[in-house]
What we know:
Elements: H1 4-17, H2 20-26, H3 33-52, H4 60-73, H5 75-85, H6 88-95, H7 98-108, H8 116-133, H9 142-165, H10 173-196, H11 204-231, H12 234-239, H13 243-255, H14 262-278, H15 296-302
Helix pairs in contact: 1-11, 1-13, 3-10, 3-11, 4-9, 4-10, 5-6, 5-9, 6-8, 6-9, 7-8, 7-9, 8-14, 10-11
Amino acid sequence: MKNLASTAVTALAPMVWGTTYVVTTELLPQGHPLFAGLVRALPAGLIALAVTRTLPRGAWWWKAAVLGVLNIGLLFPLLFIAAERLPGGVAATLSAAQPLIVAVLAVTVLHQSPTVRSFAWGTAGVAGVALVVIGPDAALDAAGILAGLGGAGAMALGVTLTKRWGRPDGVGPTAFAGWQLTAGGLFLVPVTFLFEGAPPAVDAGSGLGYLWLGLVGGLLAYTVWVRGVTTLPVASVAVLTLLSPMVAALLGAVLLGQSLGPVQLAGFALCLAAIAAGQIAPKSPSKSPRKSTSHPIEERITR
C-alpha cells in the first residue's frame, strides 16, 4: 500500500476531531458552540502565522479565504445547527456523506473518471456510521438535515479545491493551515457574536477544553490534514473522515458509559473496511505494448 506513513499521519486529524463531542459535553459551557468553533480556529491560525511568518501572495489571498470559509467558517455553524436539531447519530451520519460528495466533485471539479468503487465504498462508510451511531429514537428535521449535508458538502468542496489548487511552492503545511484557520476564524467572529452574544465565562475545565480544541484540534490537526490533502489522492483522504464518528462513539463507550452492541460493532467493521478500501488505488487499464519508432532519448522526453 502506497503512502502508508502519510495516510497514518493524516488519519490523526479526524481521530482528534472525534474527541470534540466529549470535550464539548464534559468541559465546555453549554449554549456556545460557535464560540467553541471560533476559539478552535482563530487563535490557532494566528499562532501559525506568527510562527511561520508567511502570508498569502497574489491569488492566494482569495483562494485561502475561500478554503478557510469552506473548511472552517461554514462547516462549524452548519454542523452545530445539525447537532442542535438532530440526534447526534443522525448528524454524524450526514457528515459521513463527505466521501460520497467528494467522489462526485472529483468527477466534476478534478475531471477524474468516475469509479463504481469510490461510490460503493462511500455508501458503505455512511451505512457503517449509521449502524454505529443512530439509535432507535432517531428523529428527522428538514433544516437539520440540510445543515448536516451542507456542512459535509462545504468541507468536501474545500478538500476538492485544495487538491485542485495544491499548495504554493515554498509554503509549508503549517502556514497553509494557518491561512485557512485565520480566514475561517475571522468569518466566525461576526457570526458568533450575532447568534451567541458575549462569550461565556471560562474556568479551569473549560479553559483546558478550549486549549485542546485550539492547539490540538485546530493547529495540529489541520496542519497534518492539509498536508495529507495536498499529497494523497483526494478519495483516500476523504474516506478518513469516517474515523471521526468512530472515535466519538468509542470515547462515549469508554468515558461516558454508552453501550456498543453487535450492531455497532458491525458498523465499526464496515467503516474500517471502507477506509481500508479507500486507500487502495484503482488499477490503471492495461495497454497493449506498441513498438516505438522514436529515438530512446526522444521517447523519454515525451513521456
